UniProtKB/TrEMBL annotation:
The keyword Transmembrane helix applies. PROSITE patterns: VWFA. The keyword Ribosomal protein does not apply. This is BatB protein. Residues 90-289 form the VWFA domain. The chain crosses the membrane at residues 7-28, 54-73, 309-327. It comes from the Bacteria.
Length: 344
């Protein structure tokens, strides 16, 4: 069983409030009766008034409210088990989080644009498994291979330059770490989508790409930024305080290096696409995925859950309907049984 809308469980706190209101009302009535006269005399003046009926009415109302709340929560019960076979490929997204990605020559910034591109690509995937790597001067594993896209996008949005201690853009580190995400013995197709401005301050990116090719990896590179370049704003609480400067005190201008990214992609018979247009990137990746062989990599037992809210809502309405006929007078046949000693 699973609960569809757990947030409505908080409404159950209304039940003790209703009970308190009922008890206070009973206390208030009894107090007023005492003010009116002797309680025994008051009972004789209203011999048909039942002591039990008000309690029964509040119990019915409480049950009806409970059923309504459970109906809002919408419990689901698994009624069918089936084997689901999935076909797809394993994809790792390596996202550049170096400080140069804070440049705003691409709105809103290179890093934010990269996140948007990855998020949109994920939205267009089918049953592929994905992983995420962050890199700057070194590479950092963010999310292992998973089929949970919602979790992947949550981790994606939290990525920032503070995740990696050493700055720079070490593409070879990103490629080598991404390679560890894939199972060498698996026949599943392996794809690395590497997003960067291409400002590689390390040597060996091409060598790392050739090593990846030997492992059966294909690399698609996406260039984010402009060739004219942009400055790197340093912000505090969203306000630009200064701009990144070099050792000589000159403001740094960072530019997109497309040639380096194209070389990496070519080494694995992959491809390069400029990330300026989200539509073009999605179309390019879609075509690339269509040309990659998909394999069956998972067979799981899944329960098909069916909503049960209608039963609880229906029972709640029935109880509320019955409550209309529950008057506070004594019921004749119960009166004859005198279960609650009401004939006194």
């Amino acid at each position: 069983m699973e609960l569809d809308e757990k947030k409505y469980l908080y409404l159950l706190l209304l039940l003790p409030i209703v009970v308190c209101i009922f008890l206070f009302n009973m206390y208030w009535k009894r107090r007023k009766q005492r003010e009116f006269g002797d309680l025994e005399m008051v009972k004789r003046l209203s011999p048909e008034k039942s002591v039990f009926k008000p309690v029964l009415k509040i119990v019915v109302i409480l049950l009806a409210l409970t059923c309504l709340i459970i109906g809002l929560v919408n419990p689901k019960i698994g009624t069918k088990m089936e084997t689901v076979k999935r076909e797809g490929i394993d994809i790792v997204f390596a996202v550049d989080v170096s400080k140069s990605m804070l440049a705003e020559d691409v709105a809103p910034s290179r890093l934010d644009k990269s996140k948007q591109l990855v998020s949109q690509i994920i939205n267009n995937l089918g049953s592929d498994r994905i992983g995420i790597v962050a890199y700057a001067g070194s590479a950092f594993p963010v999310l292992p291979i998973t089929s949970d896209y919602s979790v992947a996008k949550m981790f994606l949005q939290s990525m920032n330059p503070d995740m990696v201690s050493s700055q720079g853009t070490s593409l070879d580190e990103a490629i080598r770490l991404s390679a560890t995400y894939f199972d060498e013995k698996s026949k599943t197709s392996k794809l690395l989508i590497l997003i960067s401005d291409g400002e590689d301050h390390s040597e060996g990116a091409s060598v790392a790409a050739e090593e990846a090719n030997k492992l059966g990896m294909k690399i698609i590179t996406i260039g984010v930024g402009t060739e004219r370049g942009g400055t790197i704003p340093l912000k505090e609480n969203g306000v630009v305080r200064s701009y990144q400067k070099d050792q000589n005190g000159q403001t740094v201008t960072t530019k997109l290096n497309q040639e380096g990214l194209k070389t990496i992609a070519k080494a694995t018979k992959g491809g390069y696409v400029y990330g300026g247009s989200t539509k073009e990137v999605l179309e390019y990746v879609k075509n690339a995925l269509n040309n990659i062989q998909k394999t069956e990599f998972e067979a799981t037992q899944m329960a098909e859950f069916q909503s049960q809210f209608q039963w609880f809502i229906g029972f709640a309405l029935l109880l509320l309907f019955l409550d209309i006929f529950l008057l506070e007078r004594k019921t004749s046949w119960i009166k004859e049984l005198d279960l609650f000693n009401e004939k006194k």
